[in-house]
Design a protein that fits this description.
The complex is a heterodimer of chains A (113) and B (110). Chain A has 113 residues and is mainly beta. Chain A has no helices and 11 strands. Classes of the chains: A mainly beta (113), B mainly beta (110). At the A-B interface, strand 4, strand 5 and strand 9 of A face strand 5 and strand 10 of B.
């Protein structure tokens, strides 16, 4: 059973701090990795994708991937109250199930003013 | 995502009833998916379709069926609804490996 694990939180950080969200996955053959943000009562939206080891930066967001450790993280710099949401990690393996995404259960982030 | 439209937004039904959730997309993408989201269980794949003639079961397809009436339309049916099918249902379109979600349908089965 392929699994994606996230700490459910809630993770609480003060405004302006760095929020660090972590995700581990079980399938070593996974090749594509995504972070989705879901505000309460809304649908998930894609915010980051990463495909190779290392860091990928997009504005205040940095995704980090370490395939050897089967670990993906999302850093949010200068956290704002508007970043308060649940963050879903998703992993794709191009093998079985035609490469469908497997989602973690999400980490709830709360940014306090 | 405004280009994935789900109807209805909310639905309350009774055990044993047949219900259909509808989804349409305006981007012309081949890939469409149905997920359900439950508190504590995350998003789970019900069915997916890579083409009008290509329908595949996902992780939790029992009790559900789908129809891909056209490239733009992908509907999900519950033949005989049961209370543990109470959940938030999302239809998505896929551009390669990236998913774009509709607004969701909150279904309650009493």
């Amino acid at each position: 059973q392929k699994e994606v694990e996230q700490n459910s939180g809630p993770l609480s950080v003060p405004e302006g701090a760095i929020a660090s969200l972590n995700c581990t996955y079980s399938d070593r053959g996974s090749q594509s990795f995504f972070w989705y943000r879901q505000y309460s009562g809304k649908s998930p939206e894609l915010i980051m994708s990463i495909y190779s080891n290392g860091d990928k930066e997009d504005g205040r967001f940095t995704a980090q991937l370490n395939k050897a450790s089967q670990y993906v993280s999302l850093l949010i710099r200068d956290s704002q109250p508007s970043d308060s949401a649940t963050y879903l990690c998703a992993v794709q393996n191009y093998g079985g199930s035609q490469g469908n995404l497997i989602f973690g259960k999400g980490t709830k982030l709360s940014v306090k003013p | 995502d405004a280009d994935v439209t789900q109807t209805p937004r909310n639905r309350i039904t009774k055990t044993g009833k047949r219900i259909m959730l509808e989804c349409s997309q305006t981007k012309g993408h081949d890939r469409m998916y149905w997920y359900r989201q439950d508190p504590g269980l995350g998003l789970r794949l019900i069915y997916y379709s890579f083409d009008v003639k290509d329908i595949n079961k996902g992780e939790i397809s029992d009790g559900y069926s789908v129809s891909r009436q056209a490239q733009a339309k992908f509907s999900l049916s519950l033949e005989s609804a049961i209370p543990n099918q109470t959940a938030l249902y999302f239809c998505t379109r896929g551009l390669r490996e990236k998913l774009f979600f509709g607004s969701g349908t909150q279904l309650s089965v009493l």
